[in-house]
Amino acid sequence: MVATNVSKSYGAGEFTKQVVQNCSFTIESGKLTVMIGPSGCGKSTLIRLLAGFERASSGTITIGGKPVTGPGLDRMVVFQESALFPWMSTYDNIMFGPRARGEDTPEMRSFAELLLQKVGLDGFRRKYPSQLSGGMQRRAELARSMINKPDVMILDEPFRGLDAMTKRLMQEYYANLYEEFRRTTFFVTTDIDEAIYLADRILIMTNIPTQVRTVIDVDLPRPRHIEDITENDAANAIKMKALGLLHEEAMKSFAGGSKAAADFIDAYSRRMVKG
């Protein structure tokens, strides 16, 4: 999947707001690409453009050489908030896509069974979303996306809002799923440790209007463990580089704000860089 000189603005005339500007990047096949940038820089806008929910003001987005003109089965999005159907069981939620396409086949039912086991929800197949914890809902969302075998999976901060332990477990679940199925993935996060743990490549985004400032290759061997991020010199070097760049972009977003807010961000970022 390739984005070429993509721009997106809202409004008109003096009320025009440029959110994305001349943004270009490639989501490599079979790789896990992570995008990270300052809060409010335009990451969610890019997700909507890649998903086909919105059209770019200029530039092109292609998948398999074909232009993205709207939503398609070749892309599946996992949102920040749960989108499970509350009236469906876990199993029925996972099987929704195949059934909607008329593919309620033994092969798909077998795949659904496999995914239920892989995400640890086999014992919760008859439970409804309201009966699942936040982490379980996230796992069901991942299984519901993966059963459709999309060309590209797009994840918009899927573990945001989870408590620290649940978030760590979800990262491990997803890392294992990626290792086994190797779905081409575009993963958005604001968590640098999460980005390094999961990514093959990290796109560091600029402040709004956003574009790619730097691409960092994460040459850590797979499979990975959380300890790889905290005890590995190469991982720590990537973290320091990413933090430095993100600090610069975050400071730009505070340039028009109060000096006290800018000083706070500056001091916090410096402490993080020092470890």
Task: Describe what is shown at a glance.
Helix content is 41%, strand content 21%. The strands form two sheets. Strands 6-7-8-3-9-10 form a six-stranded mixed sheet, sandwiched between helices. Strands 2-1-4-5 form a four-stranded antiparallel sheet, covered by helices on one side.
Descriptors for this entry?
275 residues, alpha/beta, Rossmann fold, six-stranded mixed β-sheet, 41% helix
Structure, explained:
By secondary structure, the chain is α/β, with parallel strands linked by helices. It has a domain at 2-74 and 150-228: Rossmann fold (3-Layer(aba) Sandwich). The chain has helices at residues 43-51, 90-94, 96-100, 106-118, 134-146, 164-181, 192-198, 227-231, 233-253, 259-274; strands at 2-10, 17-26, 32-36, 58-63, 66-67, 75-78, 152-156, 185-189, 201-205, 212-217. Helix 5 (134-146) runs parallel beside helix 6 (164-181) and helix 9 runs antiparallel to helix 10. The longest helix has 21 residues, at 233-253.
